[in-house]
Specification:
17 strands; single chain; about 25% strand; three-stranded mixed sheet; 7 helices; alpha/beta
């Protein structure tokens, strides 16, 4: 039986900023940014086509006017044993518990997964947890990221403007209790996030390569204790630091893809030549795509726009949803 990687991508027809739930979605005065929908759709199609050219099967999540965040399916949940070549009925997708403004997305993902014949379960709703954006394999390990959950609000301050927006983070690290039971044969290491602009782990860390053994790291977004944990558990030669300029372009928000003997890393356009060269030194081919409208307005780049379903049998039908094109 032959397998080919499949991913979720959310139709961008209704992409807009509604909740304004991360620092990228608002200007310095706290006003929500306005999306250039036509530009976003063109960028989305370019990413979709790039993935297809690399041999990936793209499953489209249909749009919903009331849920513009569906364009970021990395938050939907995670596929257990994501890299295993197994029939879908032997794998399970675990759905997230998203922040309140996006909680309504789950029923849409359930519909798509059911249509695609993918078995799914839910994470205990006592935990805030945002899927593979904060929980992902790295070599033989799993990395769990998260931080303090805040009630998002404006608070007064000295300065101009005389207020600031509090955002907080998206995943509670105590969810490790449940996740440990799902991956009993793997060690989970925790890294606390400390910069609200990097509110998910996949905006500061990226495991990539043939066995996901290499790790891009934006050190300044990780707590001191979290950094020590990473350094103690991952070979120093496999840790690749990201500078501030690349971090601001969300260089870590990249999608790793292995096809046969080849390994690729789909990265945001504009990352530095130096970082691309470091990726190549790992035996991985960097591929860049412009998704700047999704980062500058919504706070998500390449990886946020992709939900990884892992290798899927070529003869398995994955539903009939397609980009609406409206």
């Amino acid at each position: 039986m032959s397998y080919r990687r499949a991913v979720l991508m959310g139709d961008p027809t209704y992409f807009s900023v509604v909740g304004g739930a991360n620092p990228h979605t608002r200007d310095r005065w706290g006003r929500k940014r306005e999306v250039d929908r036509e530009r976003a759709i063109e960028q989305w199609k370019r990413l979709r086509d790039t993935l297809r050219d690399l041999g990936v099967r793209v499953v489209v999540v249909p749009p919903a006017a009331e849920q513009p965040g569906l364009v970021y399916p990395a938050n939907a949940g995670f596929q257990l044993a994501v890299d295993a070549e197994k029939p879908l009925n032997e794998k399970t997708f675990y759905l997230s518990n998203l922040l309140p403004t996006r909680a309504g997305e789950r029923k849409h993902y359930e519909t798509v997964l059911r249509e695609a014949g993918i078995r799914f379960e839910r994470i205990d709703e006592n935990y805030r947890f945002e899927g593979e954006a904060d929980f992902f394999p790295c070599g033989p390990l799993y990395i769990l990221t998260g931080g303090h959950i805040e009630r998002q609000r404006f608070v007064p301050r000295f300065g101009i403007p005389p207020w600031k927006r509090v955002y907080g983070f998206r995943t509670q690290l105590r969810v490790i209790v449940e996740l440990s039971a799902l991956v009993p044969d793997h060690k989970i290491i925790r890294a606390e996030l400390i910069r609200e602009a990097h509110y998910h782990g996949d905006t500061a860390l990226c495991a990539f390569g043939h066995r996901r053994q290499n790790l891009l790291v934006y050190r300044e977004a990780i707590s001191s204790d979290g950094w020590l944990v990473l350094r103690d558990n991952i070979d120093e030669d496999l840790l690749i630091p990201i500078g501030q300029e690349d971090a601001e372009r969300y260089a870590a928000n990249s999608f790793t893809l292995n096809q046969g003997d080849e390994s690729f890393l789909v990265m945001p356009e504009g990352v530095s030549q130096r970082l691309r060269a470091q990726v190549k030194e790992c035996g991985v081919t960097p591929v860049t795509v412009d998704v700047s409208e999704f980062l500058k307005k919504g706070g998500g780049s390449v990886k946020c726009m992709i939900g990884d379903l892992g290798p899927v049998p070529d003869d398995h039908e994955l539903g009939s949803f397609e980009f609406s094109g409206r």
